[in-house]
Amino acid sequence: MAEMADKAKVEEMDWEGIDGVRMTWNLWPRTKVEASKCVIPLAASISPIRRHPLILDLPYAPLDCKTCKALLNAFARVDFAAMNWVCPFCYHRNHFPSHYHSISEINLPGELYPQYTTVEYTLPPDPSRVPPPPVFVFVLDTCMIEEELGYAKSALKQAIGLLPENALVGFVSFGTQAHVHELGFSEMSKVFVFKGNKEVTKDQILDQLGLGSSSRRAPTSGFSKGAQNGFQSSGVDRFLLPASECEYTLDLLLDELQSDQWPVQPGHRPQRCTGVALSVAAGLLGACLPGTGARIVALVGGPCTEGPGTIISKDLSDPVRSHKDLDKDAAPYYKKAVKFYDSIAKQLVAQGHVLDLFASALDQVGVAEMKVAVESTGGLVVLSESFGHSVFKDSFKRMFEDGEHSLGLCFNGTLEINCSKDIKIQGVIGPCSSLEKKGPNVADTVIGEGNTSAWKLCGLDKSTCLTVFFDLSSTGSTAPGALNQQLYLQFITRYQNSEGKSLARVTTLTRQWVDTAVSTENLVQGFDQETAAVVMARLTSLKMETEEGFDATRWLDRTLIRLCSKFGEYRKDDPTSFTLKPYLTLFPQFMFNLRRSQFVQDLRQLCWMWLPLQLTRFFY
């Protein structure tokens, strides 16, 4: 009876909440052909570090399979007599190391308990290194009126006061030129100036800052034991100081900081070198803390008009590019600016650093060009009319708050996915970048960030969500004996938390193969309508961005028609006979609201949006 009660308790657990994974289909067709007939793709929405009180914390490193590198989990077959385990992904037999020799049927390690499909390992720290603190480099636009600049400076002061005392802080201001402030030189204000009208290379940045090859270090995941305040004292501590040590200096610096003093001709925009400033900040972090989690927090008050990343000329008679200009290829600065920010994105991803953008202006500031750097690194974007607006002030404060309302910002993460044989990974949609890790479980067709089974997550938080798309091998088995076999998926997220600890979240799931060639009844019972709606919305958004001439509403309509035709029940020429299984009834409503939303429709065509959102069937 006790065993039955325990089993019932396990079945009642909130598995989706614990694992942070929801799938479009919870029962999978066995073949590639049958999967294509499902209409809605095989996909999973995952929250890699979603918090839940029932997630087991383990204070040791995970054990991996010597062949496929999947980690030991509750679905592994264990031979306690021979002290080995069989990997459920590749079926390779692995021997337990010596520190596992005390395990038995009644003395299991945490990762082997069936109720712990998700566990989080706290990786042992390197005794020769100090855990790295969080790092923030603030980049402030000074091409603003005094009132706006005052709001921005006030927000910065508040943010620095909210940071942990050991958090490292750097500061870059920019206008016509970019200024790197040496916070470690407290006797007077010492600034390194970079011209804003031309691109500067990483080597030029390092040489000018005195951080050339003699001061550079190899990428590490932490700091040497002898480093002062957690970093090398060979010049780096001039620019990045603990918040507790530089708060007073930075307050004085911000009090003295004025709007950009370079004259602006009548009828012209200020000379704003946003691109150079971000490039300098990225170069500074790359020299000081490569491979360690850090964020560049940029406060921008207008469009870039000077140097690399320029999106508009200085002449006010020249309007900022519109969607129509982009469609007609009539935006002369756009492609060059996107190419520049793409290079910044690749540099930041290689370094493991994040770009956050807080833009406050009545006009556009160039988010369309800069978004590649923000998206690739998992950064945040907040747009508002003014730095004095509550949207900016509340959002900026929320970013640095601790406790219950904390965003749970984490750094320098990676995601790896392991799959059963015959399952292929097409790609991921979300704030990540491909690590180009090829393998037998990588599909030929690509959706989003594909051609890999591992991704970089420079920045992630407790609400980060990724959509993973799967495909099946064309050689999937259809033998009767194979129909009841289980499939397995494993998601491994390694990251650095705000305390500098290295963690590894491991989620291992199993689902069942079904023979859809015989009947679709079982398949439909495993359909998740809400997840399917999210996946379709993300896929539509991706197609709108990447496919020229893509008609989103038409594609959504056709997809819904195909789904209803496949799984609906009706008599020909009798609309009243149409019915859907309870597992599918909400999905058409989700799609109907999506196709009429502002995410899909052109804003100029929304004059009829006030009409009641009600479905009417006319024909099939």
UniProtKB/TrEMBL annotation:
Residues 528-601 form the Sec23/Sec24 helical domain. Signal peptide: none annotated. Residues 62-100 form the Zinc finger Sec23/Sec24-type domain. Coiled coil: none annotated. Residues 411-514 form the Sec23/Sec24 beta-sandwich domain. Pfam families: Sec23_BS, Sec23_helical, Sec23_trunk, zf-Sec23_Sec24. One of its GO terms (biological process) is endoplasmic reticulum to Golgi vesicle-mediated transport. Its main location: membrane. The keyword Iron-sulfur does not apply. Belongs to the SEC23/SEC24 family. SEC23 subfamily. Component of the coat protein complex II (COPII) which promotes the formation of transport vesicles from the endoplasmic reticulum (ER). The coat has two main functions, the physical deformation of the endoplasmic reticulum membrane into vesicles and the selection of cargo molecules. Residues 131-400 form the Sec23/Sec24 trunk domain. It comes from the Eukaryota. The keyword Glycosyltransferase does not apply. It is found in: Cytoplasmic vesicle, COPII-coated vesicle membrane; Endoplasmic reticulum membrane. PANTHER family: PROTEIN TRANSPORT PROTEIN SEC23. GO terms for molecular function: zinc ion binding. This is Protein transport protein SEC23. InterPro entries: Beta-sandwich_Sec23_24 (IPR012990), Sec23 (IPR037364), Sec23/24_helical_dom (IPR006900), Sec23/24_helical_dom_sf (IPR036175), Sec23/24_trunk_dom (IPR006896), vWFA_dom_sf (IPR036465), Znf_Sec23_Sec24 (IPR006895), Znf_Sec23_Sec24_sf (IPR036174). It is a peripheral membrane protein.
